[in-house]
Amino acid sequence: MKKKIVSCVLAILCLSIFAGGAFAAPISQRPRLSVRQFDNKAGCGIPAAAITELMTTELFKAGLFNLLEREKLHYVAEEIKLGQSGLVDESTAPELGKIKGAQYTMTGAVTLYYYNSTGGVVYLPGIVGGLLSRTAYVTLDIRIIDTATSEVVYAAAEQGAANQTAGGVVLPIAAFGSGKTGGLLATATRNSVIKHVETMKTVNWEL
């Protein structure tokens, strides 16, 4: 009976891990990756820094790499200086020379950041009708470079899209809300990032 219970628990655990997509490699078996801030090559005021953060978050969730901070190292430097000041317990103070090197580094660029709204509204007595369609497209070009050899080991462009449509005898235009443009672009960006991460899962990353 005990063996059956243990087997059931293990089966449930395996199923929950599978359902959550948590087949991540152990930390000791993951290569180290630094993510550099993305460039804006599509013009306008594109939030390239925010897109970099989104990529970092999705990579962390996927468990493909041990992620190393590079863009905000000044915060680490501040902690080291504080540790050297004598104000921090020496046993817990960060030390110089302990920052790990990256085996891979990621560079990225936003090459398309597009939003389009089509359709119109027909006004009849007491009725608002018509069709409104709003679509966003975002393309991210990503490269991952082997820092030991400078070889490009991953290069791909992935486009994410998001759409919102409403029609019929319905809504005044204001029902979409003023923030929907940004929301659609954010969704399209996330879709592009997720495509990249899913492709990266198929690569044999060497330690």
| Radius of gyration, CA atoms, in whole angstroms | 24 Å
Unreliable spans are 8-22, 168-180
DSSP strand tally = 6
CATH architecture of the domain at 37-64 and 105-200: 3-Layer(aba) Sandwich
| CATH topology (fold) name of the domain at 37-64 and 105-200 | Rossmann fold
Order of helices and strands: HEEHEHEEEH
Q: How many DSSP H or I helices?
A: 4
* Major β-sheet annotation: 6 strands, mixed
Helicity level: 25-40%
Sheet-strand content, in percent, reads: 25-35%
Please tell me the overall pLDDT.
Answer: 78
Describe the 3D structure.
- With 207 residues, this protein is of the alpha/beta class.
- The chain has a domain at 37-64 and 105-200: ABC-type transport auxiliary lipoprotein component (Rossmann fold, 3-Layer(aba) Sandwich).
- The chain is 32% helix and 33% strand.
- It contains 4 helices and 6 strands; from the N terminus they run αββαβαβββα.
- Strands 1, 2, 3, 4, 5 and 6 form a 6-stranded mixed β-sheet that branches.
- Helix 2 (48-62) crosses helix 4 (180-200).
